[in-house]
Amino acid sequence: MTRKKVYGFSRLTKDAADIITVNTIDDDGILFRSTETPKIENYVNSEEGRELFEAADFPEDIKSAVMAMWGSTPTIEMPNRHLQLI
Predict the structure, then answer these.
(1) To the nearest whole number, what is the mean pLDDT of the chain?
(2) Nearest in space to 43 (alpha carbons), one of 33, 55, 35
(3) Quick check: pTM over 0.85?
(4) What are phi and psi of 14, to 5 degrees?
(5) What's the rounded Cα separation, in Å, for the pair 6 and 23?
(6) Running DSSP on this structure, what letter comes out for residue 73?
(7) What average pLDDT does the segment 57-76 reach?
(8) Hey, which bits of the chain come out as E strands?
């Protein structure tokens, strides 16, 4: 038996991606879901969101699917977090 991560999407749009990671156990080719709660990670199609997504540890097919949906230009503009309020 070996442990294996399985990835999928709960949402994939031009503006956002929600990626689910499920831990499984492979027993002679049969995958059983572990009792661990699946992990859901959310990314938005902004400059910052793209940087976070590209730095994340996902398989290439997941990264390619997201970037194919998002295209080459961010669709979400995030306010500058570094502005100082007066």
Answers:
(1) 91
(2) 55
(3) no
(4) -65, -15
(5) 6
(6) S
(7) 96
(8) 2-12, 16-27, 30-33, 39-44
The answer to whether position 35 is within a domain reads yes
The string over 18-39, giving b where at least 16 C-beta atoms fall within 10 Å of a residue's C-beta and e elsewhere, is: ebebbebeeeeeeeeeeeeeee
| Virtual torsion, Cα 18, 21, 22, 24, nearest 10 deg | 150
- Evaluate whether residue 7 is within a structural domain: yes
Lowest-confidence pick of 25-29, 63-67, 78-82: 78-82
Q: How many domains does the chain have?
A: 1
Q: What are the tens digits of pLDDT across the range 28-52? A: 988 898 888 999 999 999 999 999 9
Which range of residues forms the domain containing residue 23? 2-70
CB atoms within 10 A of CB 79: 6
